[in-house]
Every structure is written in C-alpha cells, then in structure tokens.
Amino acid sequence: MSGFNKVVDSYSDAMKGLEDGMTIIAGGFGLCGIPEGLITQIKAMGTTGLTVVSNNCGVDDFGLGILLEDKQIKKMISSYVGENALFEQQLLNGELEVELTPQGTLAEKMRAGGAGIPAFYTATGYGTPVGEGKEVKEFNGRPYIMEESITGDFAIVKAWKADPFGNCVYRHTAQNFNPMAATAGKITVVEVEEIVQPGELDPAHIHTPGIYVNRVIKGDFEKRIERRVLAKNEETA
C-alpha cells in the first residue's frame, strides 16, 4: 500500500511546489467547507501574484480573506464579494483584479476543466456585462454565450473523510464547490477531518475518487460561522 499512500504529515509538504503567479482553485462557500489549514499555509509561505478561483474570498480575518492582508492575491475569479470589506476595498481601489462569474457558471467552469472540456455554452449572462465580448450561438431559438473552462496549478479542497488513497467523502453543505474544484487542479490537496483505513469507505458513498487527489493531510478545523443568526424567543420578544 505504501506506493499509493497520499497522506503527508506537514502543511509545508502539502503545499510543496506552490510558486508566485500560480492559479489556485479553492473549494468552499463562504466559510463552509474551506481548507482552513491549507489557506493558512499559503499565507505563511508569502506566495504572491496568485490567481484564486473560488465562490468568494472568505471574510476579512478568516478563510481566503487572510491572503488579501498582504496582497498575495492578484486576481480573484469568483461570483460573490460577500462579507469581506477588504475584498471590496481592494476591488474599488484597483488593487485587486476581479472577474465576477455567475455561481452556476463558475461551478461548471471547474467541472468542465476537470473533465477536459475546454469550453461550453450557457444562457446565463447573455445580454449582461458578463457576456460582453464572448462568442454567442443560438440553440433552439435561444442565444447562449461561450464560457471557457478553468484549471489550476493547485486545487485546495476540504473533505470530511478520506482514505490513504485519496478517496473523499464530503459532509452535507460542506460539499458545495469542493468536488468540482478537486478535479480541476494539476496538483490537488485535500485537507480532511478524518483519515480512515483502506476499505472503510463505502465505494458507493465516495464523492471524489482518489484518482483526482495527489495529497491528503489531516487538519484541525475552527469551522467559524460567517454570520450567526438566532431565532427570537417568542416569550421574550
């Protein structure tokens, strides 16, 4: 089994090979299902000029947002500015290049990239600034724009469980963009809550097959909540 064991013991080994100017595809949605430790390692490495592909950029002091503090990100390809004031500030000041992409289109760009499909047509964005300058084709009387797929030098992903071969299972809504991101990186690194023994995962329950995964690391997660909303107690309201 040793020849197939993809488990690494340190975050420096997990992100070995990351260099300035590379493209990183990151799973997660806000702060849900994000590879917290891998993001922290990128910050510690001080890598700059990065293009980051992710639904959004976390919050000011957590998640991908910490990479904005030292301006490590040159360009964000995302669908949502979200709760991140620093993201908004750098965008408006021209310090951060942002390519806003509809959420479903972004997911399909990752999926298509991982499947080896260079481009696809979608009706989303036609007639808006998103579609400006893009090829338009008509199918069944409806116009569609052509969108190019996305691949990255690295994909960083968070999973619930994985075995040493890199087979992954995600938990509930933490699945979000992670399965698509996992397929689209030249080097895919998965940070997991639990590493199980070979054979423990039901093959029918595996979301990402290990063929897509290069490295697996056991992480410790804070799992911070982006915005806590509590229901009012009717008796005290």
Automatic annotation (TrEMBL):
SMART domains in the cross-refs: CoA_trans
Tree of life domain: Bacteria
Gene Ontology molecular function terms on file: succinyl-CoA:3-oxo-acid CoA-transferase activity
Matching InterPro entries: 3-oxoacid_CoA-transf_A, CoA_trans_fam_I, CoA_transf_BS, NagB/RpiA_transferase-like
Transferase in keyword set: yes
Gene3D superfamilies xrefs: Glutaconate Coenzyme A-transferase
Keyword tags: Transferase
PANTHER family: KETOACID-COENZYME A TRANSFERASE, SUCCINYL-COA:3-KETOACID-COENZYME A TRANSFERASE
Protein's name in the database: CoA transferase subunit A
Lineage summary: Bacteria, Pseudomonadati, Pseudomonadota, Gammaproteobacteria, Alteromonadales
